[in-house]
């Protein structure tokens, strides 16, 4: 919270604008990691251990070291400026938890669709979800070690994105990189709102 001075010499509290941003994408793409890297509070996580019973429905190809999964949501908060606070809601990546998405998307300004070039097709459903609901989004390619890196335009073409949809490269583990992604979402969503 910030304080300013009124004409009467009494301090007044600057009430920040709060915005809701979703962090979406396929299973194992780094949504929980991104929320945790950038959140200024201890993030709320609903992680559960992957089990043998889930093996037929949780495809861990390419993310073999993954041992937990989000079963409801992740929640974090970041203050971008004294007057601007983002509430982050990480969505679960598996199809069986998609019933939660409509509730999480209510009131969202925009979204991050986190992508992994090793499993790029896993983000198609999230892109389709936000396009159908006219929610502005940025595609953030999480640059995993050992994964091939592609120019932003190649990713845009592979995902068949509208020319105005931002594509950024990031490392979901690094706070500044994740913050850059969130700034991109806010700027894109505000431009889309001004045009709409």
From TrEMBL:
Keywords: GTP-binding, Hydrolase, Nucleotide-binding. This is ATP/GTP-binding protein. Belongs to the GPN-loop GTPase family. It comes from Streptomyces javensis. It comes from the Bacteria. Signal peptide: none annotated. InterPro entries: Gliding_Motility_GTPase (IPR052705), Gpn (IPR004130), P-loop_NTPase (IPR027417). Gene3D superfamilies: P-loop containing nucleotide triphosphate hydrolases. The keyword Oxidoreductase does not apply. PANTHER family: ATP/GTP-BINDING PROTEIN-RELATED, GLIDING MOTILITY PROTEIN MGLA.
